[in-house]
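Notebook entry, structure prediction.
Reason for the run: the old model in the group folder had no record of what sequence produced it. Starting over properly, with the input documented here first.
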Amino acid sequence: MNNIDKFNFSADRPIHNIDEDLLGRAKFSENLAEAISNWNGKDSLVVALYGDWGTGKSSVKNMALTYMKDKTSKPMVIEFSPWEWAAQEKITKAFFNEISKSIGKQNSSEKNKKLADSFKKYGNYLAASEVILTSTSNSIPFIVSAIAGIGFFNAFLNDTKIITLITTGIVAVSPFLKWGIENLKKLAGYYDEKAKDNEKSLAEIRSELKVALQELENPILIVMDDLDRLNTSELRMIFQLIKANTEFPNVTFLLLFQRNIVEERLTDATQSGKDYLEKIIQVPFNIPKVSQVQVHEVLFDRLNKILELDESSHLQFDRDRWTQLYHAGLKNYFNNLRNVYRYTSTLAFHFSLLKGRTVFEANPVDLIAIECLRVFEPEVYNELSVSKHAFTQFQSAGNTRENNKEALKITIDSVISKTSEINRGNLKKILNELFPTIKWITGNYYYDYSSYNNWFSEGRVCHNKNFESYFQLSLSVNDITKSDLVDFISLTANENLLKSKILELNTNRKLKEFLSQFESYENQVAEDSAIPYISTLIDVGDLVNDDDTSFFDVFGAQSLIYRLIYNFLLRIDEKEKRGEILLECFNKSNEFMMIAKLLLSEQEKRDENKETLLDNPHYISIKELFVNKLKVLAFLNKEILLENKSLLTLLYRWKEWGEIQDINNWIDLISTNFQYLLKFLFQCIQYSTSFDGKVSKKHYYIKVGNINDFYDVKKIEQIINSVDKSKLSTEEIYTIKLFNEGITKFRNGNEDNW
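New structure, fully documented this time:
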């Protein structure tokens, strides 16, 4: 196919050269050329080439004309496109003018100039009838053939009274003619002018044309393509024009159109379109049928070229899934080359839009299928684009929602109903392959959560975080892309780069969303990266914002980091090796929260006799290391510990796994500095969340009973009451206010009522 650029776009133009033939029609085109070129009958010949839209009629015609050019006795080819003139009131004149121009261009001999001039004059005479043609309806074809077929134009020229008589009679006998006084004036004026020119009569010009055409060395081939674009009256005009001139020798008409369309438009109460055509078409041909295999070979070739535009998309291409979708029904949309070219041109463009920095930002198989729906099933595509909830609703076994299930099924059925009834079975199969998430609705089939995670990392349209990209077909600068997630994997071997990236995401308040998406990629982190990866996650666990949870979303960034650590260690089979890795990583770190969470989880599993992550020796060693490191930090770098947002949690772990007296001594120490004491109280502030049906609100408080678990709160109260508060900041005053409220509730025994 010609006109293909680097994005595999195609202008969808008919081919001209035999070497461009992809469907094996060159031989048919050659035989068609031979049949037309060898015609030497006395009368004209009308040949038709039938074929449906997009089946390559114009390409076969072009190849046939190419064959003719190489022949010794090649015809003089004149291509006339009636649909270009159909809306104008000059179609008859244009037809003969085009013939005249073509004859003059192709051969400048005196004989041909004379022939060209005769055709032009002949067209001028017939053009007079255009006034009548454009002012009538069903009578148009009859008038053309009558005027063209008999010689009474000469009478018009000799006596202009006759024209008045005839036109008046037409108006009288035909209620369907839309005649006007202006048209009468134009027609009468036209013949008055012709009479003054002393021109020959129409019959004389027709005779001269017959003689000149008979003497032609090379016959004339008049080609008319796309007749099926014309409406009924235009079609009748063209066919009557052809029929009226079938007496001309050495003239062949080659007509190209979709037969059923033209037959339908020519059918009326008097006759069928089929019978009408049989009276005019002498030699009908049908475009050779092309096997689906041939068309699909072109499709596959172009799809391969599109995949080559992005190497990663080629690597991500799942042949098994493509085979399933192809046989589920995608193959039925590609029954001709025009569909292939129309589809792959836009697909190539959308592939270029989703080309990521590191990897392709969609699943190539899913994009191929969704684009097929967009091009060939636009109503389905539009309905699907607003039905995300129904098509990406993940449901595990044993947790069915029957009421919700029925509502979702209605939405799915609504999408399927947007296609024709004959296509619904195939469309349902396609949607079930694209969206395994609906199989619990359509077939009571359930997947586990690991499958859903895999669909995300594979970029599948069925995952709710991937869905929009298939319909927006663009990447926002604020989006977390697949390239971002894949690049993050490459950072896991470098502690500094990984830590810098996590803190950058934290600063931009994108960390929580990023980590929730990265969970689907975590199994791609190499075990060789265990030490830098786990060490970094332990380090950042205490540094990230964990206050971005909502009323319904309880997982913050800290929880997600902990899950990454836990899931990575779980991938390692030997408990002893897990313990070695964790111990080495914790030894390098000065942070505690992730280790505290993991040790607490291990303790609970041991209490409940459940399978543990660590063996006992390493569990005990890590717990002892935790207490020792925390104690050293508390007394040597108390400012650092006082900055830790999880201070209260760490103190509880210290109390449980260490000595309570150590904590008492530490609080005694910080109480000697009022600013340290205020920082301590500030880290004891907690909040609860309420939801009134519209918005969620946070309520801040200090639960004094928690502090009393480590230290006598009366001592703290005495210190606060003895200090001059006039120079304190607003934040410090607020902290003291919450402490005093907490003291009151603590003493009243209702501090759990917040």
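Summary: Confidence is low (pLDDT under 50) at residues 130-181, 188-193, 548-554.
The old model has been moved to the deprecated folder.
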